[in-house]
Structure formats: structure tokens, C-alpha cells
Amino acid sequence: MECKVSSEECVGIWYKDGAEIQSSENLTISKDGCFHRLKIHKVTEENAGKYKFEADGRKTESEIVVEDPPRFDTEELEAFKTAVTVKKGHKATFKLSYNGREPTKVQWYLEGEELSSEGNRNIETLDGSSRLLLMKLQRKDSGEIKIKLKNEFGMIEAVSQLNVLDKPTPPLGPLEIVEASSSVIEFKWRPPKDSGGCKIQNYILERQQVGRNTWKKVGPIGPEAKYRDTDVDHGRRYCYRLRVETEIGTSELMETEDIQAGTKAYPGPPSAPKVASAFKDCINLTWSPPADTGGTSILGYNLEKRKKGSNLWGQVNPPNEIIKDKGFAVKDVVEGLEYEFRVSAINGSGAGEFSTPSEFVFARDPKKPPGKVLDLKVTDSTYTTLSLSWNKPKDIKGVEDEAKGYFVEIRPAEKTDWDRCNSNAITMTSYTVKGMKSMAMYWVRVIATNDGGEGEPQELANYILAMPPPVRPRFTDAKIKSFMIVRAGNSARFTVNFEASPWPEVIWLKDGVPVSKKVTISNAEGTSQLLIPSAERTDTGIYTIIVKNIVGQETFSIEIRVTDEPKPPGPVELDENVPGTVTISWTASPDEKRDDRLHYMVTKRDSVKRTWHTIADRVFNNKFTACNIMPGREYQFRVYAKNDMGSSKQSESTKWLIPAKKEKFTVKMPESKACDLRCPPKFLVPLKMHTAPQGYECYMTCAIKGDPTPHVTWLRNNISLNTNTNYFISNTCGVCSLLILRVGSKDTGEYKVAAENALGRAESSTKLTVRE
Fold first, then answer.
1. Closest C-alpha to 35, from 58, 1, 62
2. What distance in Å separates the CA atoms of residue 386 and residue 762, rounded to the nearest whole number?
3. Strands 541-548 and 656-657, sheet pairing
4. Does 165 or 663 have the greater pLDDT score?
5. What is the pLDDT of residue 424?
6. CA distances for 293 relative to 31, 215, 300, 323, angstroms
7. Alpha-carbon distance 404 to 87, whole Å?
8. Between residues 263 and 210, the one the model is more confident about
9. What is the pLDDT of residues 5-62, one digit of tens each?
């Protein structure tokens, strides 16, 4: 430890755990100018503690923590690693000393399983040493012995090996008969599963002739697991017993099945001959030997051939010259003819069964591989399949021979390896690839093949997407409604059916912006549904669906109007401006501002008829003049607010009465100047702006006064409509109206009302916008 002070003359004192310390055998205190040092030469546990240096009333402190992980004694560790070998039933001891800070946890393991002091196992740990005692050991106790030490500073382990010796297990069958002739029986077997931990010294063999009770000891035959018995009689059967001998002892016996000497055991059939190569004057064949040799070695083979269409087989090799190899070059062939071949194996007993015939092969020079297929194209596709067709490649003699089959291969765009779709060549010039991933990108090629090999592949010019043929989005419903009225509080549900390929993107907008999270959109194959749960008036608007894919897009709009039965209009007032008429006015319904289709209906009842009847409907302002009001009758009026959902409760006026004349009287009026009531036309209520959905009606109205009564003309884009039968025009007491039953795009434009009399002219105009 070292510290530095500001003055070289400063004298300091070192302390450990509060007690002053001086230099000793293991500790040196020194001073070098401003540096003061304390050096511990060999750290032990006693040196752990808090150290302090004081000089001129100032101090600095530090602490030493001595780590002492467990460690083994080096010499004992080397001895411990040496494997321990004991015999079955004996005991084995493993002991190892260690150092390290206590407490130290000691664990012993056998083949990874922790051991404890119980049964035939005893563990003793004290004073830095631990011993493992294993008693009455069995062969199964062999394995890895491991000791593990652990304290707060670390962990260490050591490994040894325990080998418990025991008698070997019996040899293993089944026997493999190498030869069973009239003078020799040779056979093999498998070594024992467990040699008892010792090297095999000998196999002890006994033999019994079947039918006798005695066993003849053949004796130890060495450590090799095979035996050749030459002391046999032709036709007799023999049985053998086998034991394994090691330094520990002899195993239990294994008894073989009966083996007959000199039986005629013919070999089984070899494999069907394969054509290695074919020429006009030679066909080269190969085959595999039979699995069943008949108990003896194979001496050779006989080969036969047969022309296609013939029933006669002829031997290829001379009868006295068997074929030694597993192949043969047949030269006795005629160019252009087709042959098949079969082969039989020969052992000491004779020739066995013939193999199955080979495939037919022409005696002709090898063919040239075919060329590329022609006109490769896609005929159909889905999300998981792809149908292809092509034409045969050209047959150019000596260059490209005729194709006999085809292979179809695909390669995903992200991979470099081609995958073959058909393991065997197909003969048709069409194929359907299955199991493709939807919307995945693939490269496709077709390879023609024949006896001369595979030709060059023909690829499609472009990659293929696993999807049906591209289809521009279009809506499949014959008639889709473009307007929907929904009562407030109910759910609005609208479904659109369409077709498109590939699968399109579906977007819903409300008044040109994406729909809110409240609206639920459900998309499935070929259909999309919009659902507005618990619709409110604020959900009213133009909803547009956009269906688009890589081919194009299609849109459709529907107006959804969320409404309810309107609230009634306010108080009704009556006023007589012109004799014989009553002007009815009322306060607007609270729903008028948020429902542009709201209008009013006026009904009347008098004291004579006593029944209510409608005198005005589809009134879009808050005033109406009733005519033909008779003096002496009592009148009462009701006003209703109406919309697409129905009508409101009535707002009723007070009773109105014009007294009738009861007696004739004369009034003498003073002479006065005549009053001129004439005036030029003037609009009391001008035309309003209108926006109407396509296919729905539109009602325009205005009110005009003038004396004499003005002539009224309706115009659209400055063209008169008065004689146009497509428009319903009316003029009742100065209230002029125009009705369009089914609004179309042709009705868009500027509408004008011109009122004219002898005193002047007045005009009022508006614009009609048609929503699709």
C-alpha cells in the first residue's frame, strides 16, 4: 500500500484494525520522499483487515480482503487422477487433501450423480481432507468419480475413474455361416456385450453331433470371434457351445442352432441387371450379389438374354465358363433390336434362382440429349398451384434426339437451388405444380430428357407470383344501393362484394378521410363489410370504399344518413296580411339545422267541416299563406316537422275567426286620393344552395311579391325550364317551387328564377351540386 503526503519531512504512523504496526519479517514499512509505503511479502488470512495511515492530524484508510479459494494438494491430485481398478465385491477408496477458507462444501459424484453416506457408500470430511469409501462394488458401479470443492471464493473439482472387474457376458448371436460344405463348417459370431472390463483371452468351444448326448470340448480357440471346423462328416448336423474367457473368469455359454455339413443350399437371386452403357455392338451390364449365398461363397454367375417379343431365353456365357465378376459386356447383339437380361448366382451346390429381368435396352449407340422445350407458358395459376404447358423440342439427327420425358423445376426467388417437382420423368407436355406459398415469387424451368441424358433447361422469361391471373378490382353486386337511412341508436351495416386478383387492399373513407376507430371493417375473400354500432347523427356522411391492387382500383360511395323522427316546430303564429288569407309562421324545429331534408306540413280545420286536412306539404321555410279564408268561420292550424324517418308531433295554433256581417250599414268615407299599391317584383325568400345525392329528388322553393302579379320563369344555365316536362314547376300565391324527381349528373348547374311585370324585373339564383 502506498500514499503520498505534501511534505517530505512529514512523519506518519501505520495502523491495522486500530493498532499501530511496525516493520516485521513479513511486513516492511518504508518512506521515499513524500511517499510512504507498507509492503506485505506473503499475504495470509491474518493480514486481512482495515489499514490506516496518519500524519500531522490527517489520515487515509484502506482495507485488505484475503481471498482463499479451495485448492488440492498437487501430489495427491496426481495420484487421485490415476484410475482405480478392483474386482467385483471388493471396495475402493478415494482420498484427497485440500486447502482454502472454511467453510468449504465437499461433494462426491459417480457418473454425474451426487453421492451421500448411505448403504455401501461412506464419505468422511475433516481437517482439510475428504475420503470416499465404496464397498461391495458391482460391475455397474464402474464410471467417473468426481470430487467438487466450493467456498465463498471459488470452486474446484477433480476427476478419477473407477473400473470394477467382473466375469464377461456370453457371446452374441445370431451366427453368420460363412461356409457349410461336405467337409467344412465355418461360422462367425459377435463379441460379448460386456467383457467385464478385461481383455478377451479366449473363446472356449464345445461341439455336439445332433442325436448324441455328449459334448466334445474343442478347447480354447483364441480371441477371434470365428471358427472353421474341418472335422465334420457329410450330411451330419452339428451344434456348438461358446464361452468367453478373461483373467477374471468364464462367461455363461451361448448355444448355436444346428448346422448341416454338405447340404445343397442354393444361393438366392442377385439383383436385376442394370445397363451401364449400350452401343450398337455391345451392351455393358452390372448387378449386385444375392443377399442369401446359401451358406457358402459365390463362385460365379450365369447370364441370359431375351429379345423383346420372344419367350426364349438364351445363355450368354458358355456353360463351362461362368462369369467371375459382377458385370459383363454382351457382344452377341444385333443393332436396332431390344433386349432384356437376367442373371443367376452359383455356389458349391450349383446355380440358384434367376434374378428379375432388366429393363429393355436397344443395341444402338448412345442417344444425344434432347434440346430445349418450345413455347413454355403458364396456362393457369392459383395461390398454391401453377399449371404449365409446352411443346416437344426439335429432333435434330446427330445433334439432339427425341425427348422421352420431362422434369419440372422451381426455385424460390430468395434461394439459389432448384427443386425438382417430379421425381420420375413425365411423358405429357403439361404439368401442375402444387404446394406453392401464396404470393411467393418463383422461377420456373422445364428440362427434357431421354436415354442420352438431360437437355438444357428452358426457363420462363419472367418470375411467377403464386396467385390467380391478375384481375382489376370490380364490384360484383348487380345493384348496390347508394343511399341508406339509419335510425339513431341502431347499427348501420353495409356489405360490398367484389372480385380482384391479387388480393387487393381495401380502404374505407368517410367524407374523404379514413373512418374512425368506432367503425368496424371486416374483410374476407371477395367481400368487405362496414359496421357502425349504435349510430349517431354525427356518423352521417358519404362513405367510400376503395379496392385496389397492382392492376388498378375501383371505388364506390354510399350516403349513410343517421336520423330520427324530428322534434316539433316551435309556437305557431297567425297573421292576416291580405283579406281572405292567413299567414301561418312558426319557429323552426331544433333539428332543421342538422337535417337538410327536413321540411314542414301544414294542416287546417274549420268550424264547419270539423276535420283536419293538409293544405301544404314539403314546405322548406317557416311561413305559409293559407287562402280562401271565409269570414264567420273559426279556423285552427297545425304544423308538423317531417323527414325521412317520419313526422313530429304537431304544433297547434290558436283559433282564428273573421266575424261575418250581421247588418247592413253604410260608411261614408271622406274623399281621398287614390292609393297606388303597384310595385315591381321582389323576392321575399330567395333560393337556397342545394347538394343532392345522385338518384334522389331535389326540391327548390322561393317566395315573390309584386303588383301586378309578375310572370315567373325558371332557368338552368340560362335556358328556360318552363316547358321542360322533366321538371315539376308550381306557383301558388307567390310561392314558386321546382321539383326534380331523380337527380342526375346532367342536372348539375346554375338555377335561376326571373320574376317580371310592367314595373320591373327581379332574379334569384342558386347552384345544384350532385354527389355520386
1. 1
2. 74
3. unpaired
4. 165
5. 92
6. 97, 30, 11, 16
7. 72
8. 210
9. 888 888 888 898 888 888 888 889 888 888 889 999 988 878 888 989 998 888 899 9
Whether residue 360 contacts residue 285, with contact meaning beta carbons closer than 8 Å, is answered with no
> What is the model's pLDDT at position 260?
81
With a cut of 70, say whether residue 666 has pLDDT above it.
Answer: no
Degrees to nearest 5, angle at CA 660 with 655 and 666: 140
User: Can you give 553-620 as a three-state secondary structure string?
Assistant: EEEEEEEEEEECCCCCCCCEEEECCCCCCEEEEECCCCCCCCCCCCEEEEEEEECCCCCCEEEEEEEC
Residue type, 135: M
Q: Which amino acid is residue 552, in one-letter code?
A: G
- Percentage of the chain modeled with pLDDT above 70: 98
Mean pLDDT of 615-624: 89
What pLDDT, in 10s, does the model give residues 334-352? 998 999 999 999 987 788 9
Query: Alpha-carbon dihedral of residues 391, 394, 395, 398, nearest 10 degrees?
Result: -150
Classified as helix, coil or strand, 539 is helix
Place of cell 429379345: 307
Cell of 233: 462328416
Question: Cα 500 vs. chain centroid, distance in angstroms?
Answer: 23
Which one, of 215, 288, 226, 295, lies nearest residue 260 by Cα? Answer: 295
pLDDT for the residue 312 = 93
Q: Please name the residue that has the C-alpha cell 455361416.
A: 177
Question: pTM score > 0.90 for this model?
Answer: no
Query: How far apart (Å, rounded) are the C-alpha atoms in residues 764 and 20?
Result: 115
Please name the amino acid found at residue 364.
Answer: R
| d(C-alpha 66, C-alpha 63), whole Å | 10
- Which residues is 351 bridged to in the sheet? 346
Q: Is the preceding peptide bond at 174 cis, omega within 30 degrees of 0?
A: yes
Burial track 381-417 (b if 16+ CB lie within 10 A, e otherwise): bbbeebebbbeebeeeeeebbbbebbbbbbbbeeeee
On average, the pLDDT of the chain sits at 88
Give residue 596's pLDDT band: very low, low, confident or very high (50, 70, 90). Answer: confident
Residues in the chain: 772
| DSSP states of 308-347 | TT----EESS-TTS-B-SSEEEE----TT-EEEEEEEEEE
Instruction: Collapse the DSSP code of 77 into the 3-class scheme (helix H, G, I; strand E, B; otherwise coil) and give the result.
Output: helix
